[in-house]
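Q: Joint fold for the lines below.
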Amino acid sequence: MTDSKPMTRLELIRLIGDVLTEVDVVRANFMRETATRKRLDNIRDALDTYQRKLVRSVIKDNTKSFKELTMSLKKVNESLRQTIEAVDKIAQTLEDLVKFVGVVQKIAELMP
Amino acid sequence: MRNIVKNHNGVDICKLFYVILSTLLIAGCMSPAAYREPITRFQQASTVVIEGARTEYGLTNKRERNALIDGLVAKRALITLKTLNDKEMRVLGSDDLAARMLALDALAKHGQLLLTLASSDAPARAKDAANSLDDAIVGLSSSLGRVPSDEFKNKAEGFATIAAEVTKLALEAEISQALDKAVTLSEKDVLALIRLLRDDMSALHERRRSILSAARVFATDEYNEELAKTNPSPDKLRKAASEIKTVEDVWDKLPLLLGAGPGLDAMSQAHQKLVEYAKSSKNPQDLAELIEATDAFVTRAKVISDAIQTIQETKE
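A: Joint structure:
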């Protein structure tokens, strides 16, 4: 069950950091020239950029939009947890990661 | 005490008076001397933590730049000056960095003011310390004008109020009152500023973790790619393996590289106790609690001092 407590900016930065380190563990299983690895590299680059942006900029974490989007992020993260450590479930992991990046992108758009 | 009261001779009555007088002096003492020891410790530990935060801020953009270069090398991509100059690749812009350094300066001056007020009854010295804080605030305020966020600005305004009021009291030779005021008035602004800096440190730690995590992949890639060749070079494999070990050593040390963050937590707690003491009737129990909090802060600052040394020595 998803934790219903609102997320703070710092918790969001940490969550992105957790997913980044997990993506790194997954992508290290694939050689650089493979298609899966390239997709994972792109996902990693996107998350890294958004995390840096969140660290640099001010974002109001008490707005309705922020609360809704971070709640949605928690749900995607929960689904991601089920597959990210299983190499044979890479297709599902990639799907969840794309969703995760999409929500993070929407959160980043809230920044001035 | 019971024996003293039982023997009503002149000497014991004198002793009794001495004990009562000493207790009253300690319990009701309103002189700045009561603050001296805990404030000296607070100031010493604050200096360590503030220096730790300065180090962390100073290293952050360098770390990002190096990570960018490592990423481009891994991708076998072109490194251009345009890419290196890209402001988006930095965590803190020059104005943001300046504002934070000045905020740390103001925090250090605030501690110095407390120490001067607690250590000296000379209004001139107290006035100098208050003016020094005032100068730091002026610098900070002007720097904040160039920063989009207004959070630091709010804290700086609080500082300015403290400096003005304390300067006035110090000039009127009301040192005890100036000290209490300097502590109690700073409750909201100093604690909020410490919290803000603490959040910054936590966020910067997260960037450090992400960058280091990417470095682990670069290191294993180098080894695995050499290994995948038809005739892998034993020398290149050894070199790549050595790089993996170096990166993994840093990764293992990561929990120790929290820098000034936990120190700012301890600083916030010790400062809260200072405020409570300033507001209290200043009995021995109040003082004991304050000393306990500042001791905990000093212990934490020693750990941080070692961690900062590790950060400075760590090759990332």
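Q: Anything notable?
A: The CA atoms of residues 17 and 157 of chain B lie 49 Å apart. DSSP finds eleven helices and no strands in chain B.
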